[in-house]
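User: two proteins, same treatment. go.

Assistant:
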Amino acid sequence: MAKNKDRKKKERERRVAQKKLAASVKRKKTAKESESTFPKSNKTFTPATLPKTDHVVTNKKSPFTQRRSGG
Protein backbone atom coordinates (compact mmCIF):
# COMPACT_ATOMS: atom_id res chain seq x y z
CA MET A 1 0.00 0.00 0.00
CA ALA A 2 2.79 2.44 0.86
CA LYS A 3 4.54 1.81 -2.45
CA ASN A 4 1.35 2.52 -4.35
CA LYS A 5 0.88 5.74 -2.38
CA ASP A 6 4.45 6.88 -3.10
CA ARG A 7 4.04 6.08 -6.78
CA LYS A 8 0.80 8.06 -6.93
CA LYS A 9 2.45 10.97 -5.17
CA LYS A 10 5.39 11.00 -7.58
CA GLU A 11 3.11 10.77 -10.61
CA ARG A 12 1.02 13.66 -9.32
CA GLU A 13 4.14 15.78 -8.71
CA ARG A 14 5.33 15.00 -12.23
CA ARG A 15 1.96 15.98 -13.74
CA VAL A 16 1.87 19.23 -11.76
CA ALA A 17 5.42 20.04 -12.85
CA GLN A 18 4.49 19.40 -16.49
CA LYS A 19 1.43 21.64 -16.18
CA LYS A 20 3.51 24.42 -14.65
CA LEU A 21 6.12 24.10 -17.38
CA ALA A 22 3.48 24.19 -20.10
CA ALA A 23 1.85 27.23 -18.53
CA SER A 24 5.14 29.11 -18.26
CA VAL A 25 6.04 28.31 -21.88
CA LYS A 26 2.61 29.51 -23.00
CA ARG A 27 2.93 32.67 -20.92
CA LYS A 28 6.37 33.43 -22.38
CA LYS A 29 5.06 32.81 -25.88
CA THR A 30 2.11 35.17 -25.47
CA ALA A 31 4.32 37.79 -23.81
CA LYS A 32 6.75 37.59 -26.72
CA GLU A 33 3.95 37.95 -29.26
CA SER A 34 2.34 40.87 -27.50
CA GLU A 35 5.71 42.58 -27.07
CA SER A 36 6.34 42.40 -30.80
CA THR A 37 2.93 43.88 -31.67
CA PHE A 38 2.96 46.80 -29.20
CA PRO A 39 5.89 49.09 -28.47
CA LYS A 40 6.96 48.92 -24.86
CA SER A 41 6.26 52.60 -24.23
CA ASN A 42 2.57 52.18 -25.11
CA LYS A 43 2.05 49.26 -22.72
CA THR A 44 2.63 51.25 -19.55
CA PHE A 45 -0.30 53.13 -18.09
CA THR A 46 0.35 56.75 -17.23
CA PRO A 47 -2.40 58.74 -15.56
CA ALA A 48 -3.22 62.15 -16.92
CA THR A 49 -1.63 64.90 -14.87
CA LEU A 50 -3.86 67.70 -13.75
CA PRO A 51 -2.52 71.24 -13.84
CA LYS A 52 -1.76 72.59 -10.41
CA THR A 53 -3.71 75.62 -9.33
CA ASP A 54 -2.35 78.02 -6.76
CA HIS A 55 -5.09 78.63 -4.25
CA VAL A 56 -5.03 82.06 -2.67
CA VAL A 57 -6.90 82.17 0.60
CA THR A 58 -9.04 85.27 0.92
CA ASN A 59 -11.38 86.25 3.72
CA LYS A 60 -9.82 83.92 6.28
CA LYS A 61 -11.74 83.82 9.54
CA SER A 62 -9.88 84.32 12.77
CA PRO A 63 -9.94 81.54 15.36
CA PHE A 64 -12.95 81.32 17.66
CA THR A 65 -11.14 82.64 20.75
CA GLN A 66 -10.03 85.81 19.00
CA ARG A 67 -13.51 86.44 17.64
CA ARG A 68 -15.09 86.07 21.05
CA SER A 69 -12.61 88.27 22.87
CA GLY A 70 -12.85 91.02 20.31
CA GLY A 71 -9.19 90.94 19.43
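Protein 2:
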Amino acid sequence: MQTIDVADAELASLLVLDSVQAPGDPLRVVAHLRDGRNFSLTLLTLDGLRRYLTGTPAYVAQRVLVVRDPSEAAVLEAVRMAIAQGIERFGVLDAALEE
Protein backbone atom coordinates (compact mmCIF):
# COMPACT_ATOMS: atom_id res chain seq x y z
CA MET A 1 0.00 0.00 0.00
CA GLN A 2 1.09 3.53 -0.74
CA THR A 3 -0.40 6.77 0.55
CA ILE A 4 -0.28 9.89 -1.58
CA ASP A 5 -0.80 13.12 0.37
CA VAL A 6 -2.66 15.73 -1.63
CA ALA A 7 -3.00 19.46 -1.11
CA ASP A 8 -6.48 19.79 -2.62
CA ALA A 9 -9.50 21.56 -1.17
CA GLU A 10 -11.56 18.35 -1.29
CA LEU A 11 -9.09 15.45 -1.53
CA ALA A 12 -6.95 14.87 1.58
CA SER A 13 -5.06 11.76 0.49
CA LEU A 14 -5.17 8.77 -1.78
CA LEU A 15 -4.42 5.25 -0.61
CA VAL A 16 -3.22 2.91 -3.36
CA LEU A 17 -4.34 -0.54 -2.19
CA ASP A 18 -2.39 -2.61 -4.66
CA SER A 19 0.27 -2.04 -7.25
CA VAL A 20 -0.09 -2.99 -10.87
CA GLN A 21 1.47 -6.43 -11.21
CA ALA A 22 1.14 -6.73 -14.99
CA PRO A 23 0.28 -4.25 -17.72
CA GLY A 24 -3.46 -3.84 -17.82
CA ASP A 25 -4.18 -4.96 -14.26
CA PRO A 26 -6.82 -2.84 -12.49
CA LEU A 27 -5.66 -0.49 -9.76
CA ARG A 28 -7.72 -0.10 -6.57
CA VAL A 29 -7.49 3.12 -4.56
CA VAL A 30 -9.30 4.77 -1.67
CA ALA A 31 -9.86 8.52 -1.86
CA HIS A 32 -9.92 10.16 1.58
CA LEU A 33 -11.95 13.35 1.28
CA ARG A 34 -11.50 16.32 3.61
CA ASP A 35 -15.14 16.00 4.71
CA GLY A 36 -14.26 12.62 6.28
CA ARG A 37 -15.75 10.35 3.62
CA ASN A 38 -13.73 7.60 1.94
CA PHE A 39 -14.48 6.24 -1.53
CA SER A 40 -13.07 3.06 -3.09
CA LEU A 41 -12.34 3.44 -6.78
CA THR A 42 -11.14 1.08 -9.50
CA LEU A 43 -8.92 2.42 -12.26
CA LEU A 44 -8.23 0.65 -15.52
CA THR A 45 -5.49 1.52 -17.99
CA LEU A 46 -5.91 1.60 -21.74
CA ASP A 47 -3.89 -1.65 -21.88
CA GLY A 48 -6.34 -3.20 -19.46
CA LEU A 49 -9.27 -2.04 -21.52
CA ARG A 50 -7.68 -3.53 -24.64
CA ARG A 51 -7.18 -6.80 -22.77
CA TYR A 52 -10.85 -6.90 -21.74
CA LEU A 53 -11.86 -6.19 -25.33
CA THR A 54 -9.86 -9.07 -26.76
CA GLY A 55 -12.34 -11.38 -28.41
CA THR A 56 -15.39 -9.23 -27.68
CA PRO A 57 -16.69 -6.07 -29.34
CA ALA A 58 -17.64 -4.28 -26.09
CA TYR A 59 -16.84 -3.92 -22.40
CA VAL A 60 -19.37 -2.59 -19.89
CA ALA A 61 -18.51 -1.80 -16.28
CA GLN A 62 -19.87 0.32 -13.50
CA ARG A 63 -17.67 2.52 -11.36
CA VAL A 64 -14.48 2.20 -13.41
CA LEU A 65 -12.18 5.12 -14.19
CA VAL A 66 -9.92 4.81 -17.24
CA VAL A 67 -6.41 6.28 -17.24
CA ARG A 68 -3.75 6.36 -19.95
CA ASP A 69 -1.19 4.84 -17.58
CA PRO A 70 -1.00 3.96 -13.87
CA SER A 71 1.21 6.94 -13.00
CA GLU A 72 0.57 8.98 -9.86
CA ALA A 73 -0.30 12.03 -11.97
CA ALA A 74 -2.86 10.13 -14.07
CA VAL A 75 -4.46 8.50 -11.02
CA LEU A 76 -4.73 11.84 -9.19
CA GLU A 77 -6.24 13.51 -12.26
CA ALA A 78 -8.85 10.74 -12.62
CA VAL A 79 -9.81 10.98 -8.95
CA ARG A 80 -10.01 14.79 -9.15
CA MET A 81 -12.25 14.48 -12.22
CA ALA A 82 -14.48 12.00 -10.37
CA ILE A 83 -14.76 14.40 -7.42
CA ALA A 84 -15.65 17.29 -9.74
CA GLN A 85 -18.38 15.23 -11.41
CA GLY A 86 -19.75 13.74 -8.18
CA ILE A 87 -17.56 10.99 -6.77
CA GLU A 88 -20.63 9.12 -5.54
CA ARG A 89 -21.25 8.13 -9.19
CA PHE A 90 -17.81 6.58 -9.57
CA GLY A 91 -16.78 5.19 -6.20
CA VAL A 92 -18.16 3.11 -3.38
CA LEU A 93 -18.56 4.86 -0.03
CA ASP A 94 -16.42 3.12 2.60
CA ALA A 95 -16.45 3.26 6.36
CA ALA A 96 -13.52 5.06 7.98
CA LEU A 97 -10.28 3.17 7.40
CA GLU A 98 -7.55 2.71 9.92
CA GLU A 99 -4.10 3.18 8.41
